[in-house]
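re: ur question from earlier - yeah i can do the single chain one, its not a big deal. heres the input i used so u can compare w yours
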Amino acid sequence: DVKAIKSAVVPRDSSQASSPAVQRYVDTRVETLSAEVRDLRDEQGQQKWDELNTALAERSFQRTISLARDLEQWLDEQGDKVSVNTKGQALLTLADVAVIRHSGFPYGNRTDTSDAWRLLKKAESAFAHSLTDEDAQRMLCVRAKLLYLDGKHEDASALLKDASAPRILALRIAFLLDQERWGDASDLAEQQDLPDKKWADDAIVASIRTDHHGRADRLLKWSTSQEPTVKKACVVAFVRTSFSKITGDGSSAFLMRMDAATRQQLLNLQEMLGEAFAAPLRDAPKSGVEAEALELVILIGHVLRDRDACQNAADRLAKWKPAYPELGRAVLRVDVAPIDGLADRYLEENPGAFTFQLLAAMLLIEVEHDASRAMSLLRPLLAQKEDDDQREEIGKSVVIAGQYCDEPLAKEALADLESAFGADHRFPAMLRAMILAKKSSFLDAEAELARVEDEKDYLWLQLSAGIAMQREHWSAAAEAYGKFGELVGRAHAFQNEAYAWHQADDDGKELAALEKAIKLAPDSNSTVRNLAAAYHRVDRYG
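and the output i got, formated as tokens:
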């Protein structure tokens, strides 16, 4: 660029070019035009940086990562033509995005921080001779995040010490939340003179977790005077944490004991979301925060058994990319209608992401009835994964898929399970039981299940109930379905329990099972009819 500028300002008559006056003129014009070019490049960089930071604030992470790739490419091409400040700020932001990309959320879920460290070192090099206080804070925060991700929690916290600048304080609170030190996080936020948009939503989470509802209410009220993104983030934090506190683990036991006061609390949360997110509930989410709100509408609708609310939110949320995991879970719970191509979307939009691979497999099994394709996803995963919890999830899914596969494929999957867990593990035993039951070898199947009996394992209960039902051992089937229903909170489990008790001529227990089913599926016509018939048989007409 400098060469081009010189050629533009040097006089056409080369005989004049060597004079001192002309040379001074040329040097001055080169400096001026170079500064103008740098200003133009800085303006372009600032625009890209602003877009990226807006996407980050809105939690639109796919857009964030896409914009980060664009910014890094631009830096590779133009980095030597921009100011130190622009280049350094851009590199720090890219390092921040790399932290998000490699950590999951909130922090510490993965350990590959190499790309983020690379970008941080480039930023440090760019800022070697010019560093503002704000840039120093940002650099400190990125380094602390990376140390935290690398498992050096004490080093990360020590790096931030007692600093109270909003950016640093936000990270200190985030670390405390990740360690479930709710009280410390809430107290740290409360000690500040004023809330700040960088940490207010996390402070709400900490306050509700520690039952400091007054603190949470004050923060929520403060957010109403802030920019829309901050207000929405605070509402989402308030609703999500309140919902979690109210419902606990969301088990069927909670669903069936929910009283009127608890129901009203959930209705209040539903109303709060409706007021704060009216536009996305009418049309579609335009940011990650709005998508999170729709996800919460589905979760609350599930507990309230409000299928209309679930379906409306799901229809809107399905327009957001990447597809949220709660969509698939809602389909599997039968809270919403099947969504065309959702399994394929999960695989295409989130390549290699375990949660989405597993959800895609379950959708293929339960919704698309393509157990063979599900097996083609699950079996390689089983061989690859070393994380014990993930392998457990995969193993369970392989057993479920095995119910719907032909015998040769089921036996191949059985060999995989035996290799991964050992022949005596419950997963191979359950799949062997299924293969035997399909051949009507019920005694051998029951023997396999008896060897790994575990009434806290919903899959074991489901298989035991199914085999007992096939053998017309009605009481055993009913008891197993009842325990299965208590674990998973699904109406169909209690409906099956009621059917088995009906076959066993036990009207009282049939009625009790149907009353549980109707609480979970109040709009089920078949359950209403069966319940009415059961009341008739025991002469209960009131």
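The two ends are 90 Å apart (CA to CA). not sure if urs matches, ping me
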